[in-house]
Amino acid sequence: MAVFADRYLRFPEYGGGAHGFGDSILWPVHVWRVLYPEPSRNSLNLFQKAILGLARARTTDREEVGALLGLAPELVAFIVATQLMPQGVMDGRGCITTKGLDVLDTLEFEKAKQLVGYAFQDAITGELLPRFSSSLPEIEPCGEKGGFPVFLLDRGKGETDCPYNVPAVAAARAKLSEKQFFDAYERYRRDYDNSRAISDEDVVTAERVKIHGIELIDQNPVPMYLWSLLYKEKGGEKPWLVSDPFGLRKAAPWMRERVRNLAPKLPPLAKKVARVLGADSAQEITLETLDEMEEKVMWEVLSNYPWAPRVPSLARYLPSFLRAQNLVAMRERPSEEQLDTLVSEAQKLGEGTFKWMIGQGPVFSKHRLPKDSWKRDEAMATFMSLDLPMVNNKVADGLAGQQVYNIRKARNSGSESLKALMAAALLSSSEHVEFPLNLVEVEIRDLERLIELANVRNKAQHASGRRLLKEEALSQSDFIMEWVLKFKELY
Question: Of all helices (H) and strands (E), which one includes residue 152?
Fold first, then answer.
């Protein structure tokens, strides 16, 4: 794979204090050089000038002006009423005044000092980031590790970092429109003003770029990487965050959204998020911990089981199983309900594998089973006659209690209990060598453990004084994951 860029930008971090535990990433961007006039007190801003220019061209209808500029009509009316009319450049009818014409003429012929700045286009989505800069603080790598650049962060301490390079998308660089610049600058301006409003001004170390008009200098942008950080902040509102690459704010929701959207398609990035979430293990279970666990499980599925989305019958149960397993593992003395939930979720996961197999097919013939019902000894004889190395007397006996109706229903719809689904799968395996159960190494002990899993809750519920133990529940959950992973090459 060709390297997207060999230039890296690392803006000063937000001045409000260090982040918690984090993992660095490099986000690909197209950097555009732009030219903009140095602002003066008498200048109109980007929106005011555009509205006034349209008024000079006799376009004053709020709906039409809004459509042309990509602004809501209400916002156009607000700018006219609260900014342009008080300056005397527009009248009460929304028409340009003589003063307004003079201001526009002055702005157009005034030779203001032109400044060079930079706009940043996401090299994955093609969108303009809501940030502008008058400089490019580059950082040079000092080496390479595993195909990724290594950077020296503290020469005295010898501290280095090797961020993950997020791959770019070749087709992401789209033609930029004036409306895109309008929207990106408006979001940038709001972010800057909000940061000043909610923080001590000394904390906001990022510069403020004031743009009243803008034009591209070059026909082609320069590919670069932006340094950012996936991190977890103890007691934070979100279980994981992404730092603002430009240091204007501590966290950037628009960067978090980008990571969230991309990670399901990029397992190495999902692993980064999972690592951040798992770094600070909780000692006590609280609502906040459970919310965090929900997020952690989602990324665990994405990073460790990338095949799950292709197997709906497993994807449906895998997150709830992992939550239940984590909950039992981190409790010194889990409750009966928590242990029961884990075993129940393990059973569903086992059922999910057989539902998947039956969906893959081919399945056994309709005439293989009696029309109505069978006796236990007839069922036992049928399973022993399957001539499968994975079936012994104990397995056959464990399945002999299944009714014909349930096995047939499992064959037709996949909506039955673990034992019925297992019986349907074994019957199908005996008729079709290409059935999934025949394509991996399945041992007698595997089927015995599955039958044991199917029985364990009944034993706990009906035997006098019999309770599930933590070790027993975790052992069953470990086994079912081994069983699920036997077929991962086939999913």
Answer: strand 148-154
Task: Name the one residue in this structure whose structure tokens are 């980064």.
Answer: 272
Output the six-digit token pair for 486: 């036997």
Same domain membership, residue 172 and residue 103: no
pLDDT tens-digit profile of 148-199? 999 998 888 888 999 999 999 877 777 787 778 878 877 887 777 766 655 5
- What lies within 8 Å, CB to CB, of 308 at 6+ separation is 301, 314, 315, 318
Q: Are residues 366 and 457 in the same domain?
A: yes
Residue 24 and residue 58 in one domain: no
* Residues paired with 243 in a beta bridge: 251
Residue 420 lies in a domain: yes
In total, the chain counts a number of residues equal to: 491
Q: Could you list the residue range(s) of the whole structural domain that residue 261 is in?
A: 8-36+115-265
Q: Which amino acid is at 189?
A: R
Contact partners, residue 371, CB within 8 Å, separation at least 6: none
Domain count, the chain: 3
Model pTM? 0.59
Annotate 149-181 with b (16+ C-beta within 10 A) or e (fewer).
bebeeeeeeeeebbbbbbbbeeebbeebeeebb
Secondary structure of residue 111 in the 3-state scheme: coil
C-alpha to C-alpha distance for 425 and 418, rounded to whole angstroms:
10
Q: Domain check: are 367 and 467 in the same one? A: yes
The model's pLDDT over 124-146, given as tens digits with 9 standing for 90+, comes to: 999 999 998 989 999 999 999 98
Q: Following DSSP, what letter does each residue of 466-481 receive, concatenated? A: ----HHHHHHHHHHHH
Residue closest to 121 by CA, chosen among 69, 183, 165: 183
Q: Indicate whether 155 and 185 sit together in one domain.
A: yes
Strands (E), 365-421: none
Domain membership of residue 299 (yes or no) is no
If asked whether residues 19 and 45 sit together in one domain, one would say no
The Cα–Cα gap between 420 and 408 comes to: 8
Instruction: Give the pairing of strands 222-231 and 8-9.
Output: parallel
Domain boundary among 95, 111, 127: 111
Residue-wise pLDDT for 279-324, tens only, equals 443 334 455 555 666 677 778 888 889 999 899 999 888 988 998 8
Helix, coil or strand: residue 35: strand
Greater confidence (398 vs 336) lies with 398
